[in-house]
Amino acid sequence: MWTFIHKLGSPKWCYTLCGRLQPGFWAAAALLLCVGSVWALGYSPRDYQMGDSYRIIYVHVPSAILAQSIFIAMAVASAVLLVWKIKVADMAARVMAPFGAAMTFLALFSGSLWGVPTWGTWWTWDARLTSMLIQLFLYLGVIALRGAFGSADQGAKAVAVLTLVGVVNIPIIKYSVVWWNTLHQPATFTLTQPPAMVASMWMPLLVMVLGFYCFFIALTLYRLRNEILRRESRTRWVQELAD
Amino acid sequence: MRANRKRRLVIVVGLVALVAVAVGLTLYALRANINLFFTPSQIAAGEAPHDRTMRIGGVVKKGSVERSGDSLQVAFSVTDFASDVRVSYDDILPDLFREGQGVVVIGRLRDDGEFIAQQVLAKHDENYMPPEVAEALKATGNLPDGSVPSS
User: Fold this and answer.
1) How far is it, in rounded angstroms, from Cα B103 to Cα B97?
2) pTM here?
3) How far does chain B reach from its first CA to its final CA, in angstroms?
4) Which residues of chain A have pLDDT under 70?
């Protein structure tokens, strides 16, 4: 186990592993997203109150879950960088950030579209919506802070600290609907209780969530390989690879 | 684990813990402002301001909705099952508005206790179900309160 983790810290070994894992995740993502979308849009039943507009859930919930998971992953990578000084962790944190920002935007945007027919408004400053907007700014801040430094190796520490500070917002997003009264409804899915939804509704949602995860992992492996090549371009193994 | 790694780990964990405590205390201090709306009980207890725009939230009381025949004028009571607030509104209601539905109303509280609404937002609960399931639950009387199936 420990030797595996140590090996993961070697850019060359990590590059090879990413290449080996990539095709499987791309295939799984394509399959799950196709099956999930058709199932969600075509076969799952309508909601008894909202009719068809509730189907936005099949994009809204996966993107919101991803937005939070990706930031947690970035925070873990940042901690690994700060404590163990493993460069690959910083590369991983860097390549994950733009997709995380995109997912946060998608969650806000799809929620806004959903809010119009359901609540009667695009936006309200309730705790859930506001904390999610802060999350988007944190992502943009992390990306901008890294961009403010000249080379890729500089600024890694500052970015890692900002990411670790920002991760405090994740539990706030999660529990905002419990701690304060909000327009946003509480979570439908909890670990302790069976879902407040029939199986024909939550099964396609589960497929979509897994599909989003697989797509994210595949994209991260792909971008991490590029990032490793870019940052390690002066090492001998990369130059041999290029020849 | 080498000593300097251990020290850095302590610093990282300490940093996150400190920020968490700072943010937690800030949010605790601001809790009254972060709540989106006042409940009818808070208004009955006089906690809500009278002369400025605010939000109240609760459930539309069953049998309280009175619509005017020739305009959009509508009046209804918002309840939290302890106190009620009478609301009047003169605009288009959201599709999900119905008796027993959760709502958030933006407007001003008049001194006579009537709430003049500028905007009515419908709240949706976390339960999603197909129409057939809702009908079946309704037949057995197990449908959550405030959930009226649309036709």
Assistant:
1) 7
2) 0.86
3) 66
4) 152-153, 191, 196
**Would the CB atoms of B36 and A165 count as touching at under 8 Å?**
no
Mutate to test the interface with B, among A83, A125, A165 (most CBs of B within 10 A): A83
Residue of B nearest to A125 (CA): B36
Residue A8 lies in a domain: no
First to last CA, chain A: 34
β-sheet bridge partners, residue B38: B56
What backbone phi and psi angles, to 5 degrees, belong to A120?
95, 20
A130 to chain B: closest CA residue: B34
A177 close to A187: Cβ distance less than 8 angstroms? yes
Contact flag B39-A120 (C-beta cutoff 8 Å): no
Q: Which residues of B touch A173 (CB under 8 A)?
A: none
Query: What CATH number is associated with residue A220?
Result: 1.20.120
Which residue of B36, B123, B150 is in closest CB contact with A48? B150
Which domain, by its residues, includes A61? 21-44+52-186+195-242
In tens, the pLDDT along A155-191 reads: 899 999 999 999 999 999 999 888 888 888 888 777 6
B contacts of A169 (beta carbons < 8 Å): 23
CB contact at 8 A, A208 and A37: yes
Other Cβ atoms within 10 Å of B48 Cβ, number:
19
Contact A183 B104 (CB under 8 A): yes
**Model confidence pLDDT, tens digit, residues A19-38:** 999 999 999 999 999 999 99
Name every residue whose Cβ is closer than 8 Å to that of residue A50 and which is 6 or more positions away in sequence.
Answer: A117, A118, B96, B124, B128
